[in-house]
Amino acid sequence: MSNKPKVLLLDNIDPVSAEILAGRGINGELYAKLTPAELEAHIKDAAGIVVRSATQVDEALLAKAPKLKVVGRAGVGVDNIDIQAATRRGVLVMNTPDGNTISTAEHACGLILSLVRNIPNAVESLKAGRWDRKKYLGTEVHGKTLGVVGLGKIGSGVAQRMLAFGMHVVGFDPYMTNERARELGIKLVDMDELYASSDIITVHTPLTDKTRNLISKEQAPKLKKGVKLVNCARGGIFNEADLLDMLNDGTVSELALDVYSTEPPTDDMRALLEHPHVVCTPHLGASTEEAQEKVAVQIAHQLADALELKDFKGSINGKSIALSTNAELQPYLKLAEQLGRFCIQLAGWNVKELTIEYTGKCGTHAEVLTDAFLAGYLHQVDEAPVNLINSRYLADGKGIKIREIKESSSGTFSELMTVHIGGAEAFSRVSGAVFGDSDYRVVGINSLQIEVQLQGNLIIYKNVDKPGMLAAVSSKLAENDINIASLSLGRNPANMRAITAIAIDKPAEKTILEEMASVDGVEYLTPISL
Ligand SMILES: NC(=O)C1=CN([C@@H]2O[C@H](COP(=O)(O)OP(=O)(O)OC[C@H]3O[C@@H](n4cnc5c(N)ncnc54)[C@H](O)[C@@H]3O)[C@@H](O)[C@H]2O)C=CC1
Ligand SMILES: O=C(O)CCC(=O)C(=O)O
Fold first, then answer.
1. For the segment 42-71, what is each residue's pLDDT rounded down to a tens digit?
2. 277 is catalytic
3. Which terminal residue of the chain has fewer beta carbons within 10 Å of its beta carbon, N or C?
4. Signal peptide span per the entry (predicted)?
5. How far apart are alpha carbons 124 and 149 in whole angstroms?
C-alpha cells in the first residue's frame, strides 16, 4: 500500500488536478460520481478531498474522515461544505476564488441576451418547424439600465461587459467604494433605487441571511413593472416560490436562472422552469473548458501547498494559518504554543478567561499567536486535532473568554508574551520570551522573575519562603533517582512566598509528586510535561 497522501477528486474535476498532485507526490483519485457508501469507504484514509457543487461535505461525512486535513472547492461557493463542522475538526477549507470568474460573468451576460432576444424560445420554435418572427420580437439592451447586486469579481465583470453593450449600470454592494465604482463606470445606489431604476437586475452575491429572498413579492411595488431578472449566483436569492406569480402578473417579464435552491430542482419547480418567459440552465456558469482547467490547476497546487504546510492560499476558515508560514513568526508561534501547553498544566481546566498581553513587535501578529497559544492550551482536548484552524472555536465552545492586549516594548524584554489566567488558583500570570532562535523560556510566574526552558519535564511549586525548603523538596527526587537538570527560584519577601521551577531528567511518578507536595511549606505543586 502506498504511503503517499491520498486526495479524492470528486464531481468531475478536470483530470489535470491528478497530474499536478502526482508531480507533488500525492495520489489524486478521480471519481465522477460515488454512492454514499463508496464515498464513505474512500474518504476513510483521505488527507484531502476536492469537490465542485455536487458533493455535500457535511458533518456526517467529515466524521468518517479521521485523516482529513483539507477540503478544496474547485470553484467559489462553499455552501455545500459545512465550514463550521470542518473548523471544529481542524480541517482547512479552501476555494479558488477567481478561476471561474470570466466564464460565469460571460454566462450571466449570455443569459441577459437570451432574455431580451428570446433566443432559447426562438431556437426551440424553429427546430419545431415554425417560423415565428413576430412572436419573438425582442428589445435592445443599449440604453437600458442594468442593476447589479454584488459588485465582486463576477458582478464587476458582468457590469464591464454590459457597459460595452451600451447599458447604464447601477450597482449595490456594501463593500464597493465610490472611487472603484466610478473607475468601473458603475453608479452606486441603494437597493431601493436599484429596484426602481433597473430594467434588468442581475445578482452576484453569496447566499446569506441578507441576500436570501432579495427579490420576492414583497419587493414587487418597488420594481419597475416588467423587470427582467437574472440569477447566476445562488438559488434562494430570488424567492423561487414567488417568482411564478410575479411572472404571471407581469411584475417580472422575463427570468433567467442558472442556480436553484435545490439542485437539481425538485418537481415543485417544474411550473416555473417550464414557464415560457423563463430561461434556465443547469448550473453552467463555470462549466467551460477554461474555467474547469483553471480551478483544477489552482486547487491542486493550493491543496499540495497546504498538505506540505507551505502556503494556505484560498483558505476560508484558516485566517491565521495563512500567516503561519511567515519565517519571522516561527519562534513566536512555537513560544505561544509551548506557553499554552505550560499554562493549561499549571492552571487546570477551571479557567474561564485568558488575557494575552503582547509586548513589542510580536503584538502585530497577536491574532495568530493567540490561536497558536490556544492550540497548545487545548492540546489535551479530546476532539483531536487541535490546530490553528479550530483552537479559538474550541476555546469558545468551552466558554473561555479570550482577550488580547498589545503593549509597546518596555522593561527587560523587548518581546514578551504574558498570559493572565483568570480564575486560576495559585498561578495567575505567566510570561514567556524567546532567547536566540529556538530557546523558549518562561521568564516570570505571578509577579516573580523565574527562568525555565519550555521543554521536557518540569515541576513547579509555590511555597513558604523559609530555610530548608529546597533541600526538603529536592531530596524526594534524589531519593527516587531523579536528576535535576536545572532549577530557578523567585521570591517575594513581602509575603514570604516563593515559586520554584525544577527541570528534571525524567517524569516523576505520582507518589513522588505527592511526597513533594506534602513537604511542610509547599502550598501548591504541579508537574508539567512539554
Ligand atoms: N453559477 C455558477 O456556476 C457560479 C456561481 N458563482 C457564485 O457567484 C457569486 C459571486 O461570486 P464572486 O463574484 O466570485 O464572489 P465575490 O466574493 O468576488 O463577490 C461577491 C460580492 O457580493 C457582495 N455582497 C455580499 N453581500 C451583499 C449584499 N447583501 N448586498 C450586496 N452585495 C453583497 C460582496 O461584497 C462581494 O463584493 C457567489 O455566490 C458564487 O458562489 C460563482 C462561480 C460560478
Ligand atoms: O463547479 C461548478 O461548476 C459550480 C461553480 C460555482 O457555482 C461556484 O464556483 O460557486
1. 999 999 999 999 999 999 999 999 999 999
2. no
3. N
4. none
5. 31
